[in-house]
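Minutes, structural biology subgroup

Action item carried over from last meeting: produce the structure token record for Acireductone dioxygenase (Aristolochia fimbriata). EB confirmed the sequence was re-checked against the source entry. Recorded below for completeness.
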Amino acid sequence: MALEAWYMNESLEDQRLPHHRDPKEYVPLAKLAELGVLYWHLDSKNYENDEELQKIREARGYNYMDLLDLCPEKVENYEEKLKNFFREHIHADEEIRYCLEGSGYFDVRDEEDRWVRIWIKEGDMIVLPAGIYHRFTLDAGNYIKLMRLFVGEPVWTAYNRPQEAHPARKEYVESLAHRPVPLEAH
Ligand SMILES: CSCCC(=O)C(=O)O
Ligand SMILES: [Fe+2]
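Output recorded by EB:
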């Protein structure tokens, strides 16, 4: 199955639950593309020798990479980090994550400020554009190993919402306004 994404319900229950609406409302890849979210499915078992990954990195200039194994034994201030990941924020640059093991949820806001939950599993690689409001949580499986990529020296600074005056935010909002209107909306 391809990447699954859906509109979230408003319930304040455990963030690691799926939070589907009733009935479920899935969000197609084309919609994610309109929001500027990019997606590839790669062979995560072969990440060290993967030509496809290499091509993406070369094409997009992702010369930096590291691995983030999200478990309490390997991450300093684990609980605090997870808490910060789930605070709605933006970055001045793209956020590029490739899931090597486990799974988790990247939530992004759509153009009408609704939460879209993107379920990342082994082999899924996504790029969130600079300026998009987002957050991250582990799912009920409670474990993910991610590759983080970046153009040049990495900057992980998160700017918590609201950030309407931030240049990356302004540019992102502007890019949404100029994206072609999908056919079904005519
Ligand atoms: C665990 S990676 C995703 C969390 C996030 O949004 C970030 O690192 O900025
Ligand atoms: Fe982020």
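Discussion: The longest strand covers residues 95-109.
Next step: EB to file the record with the rest of the batch.
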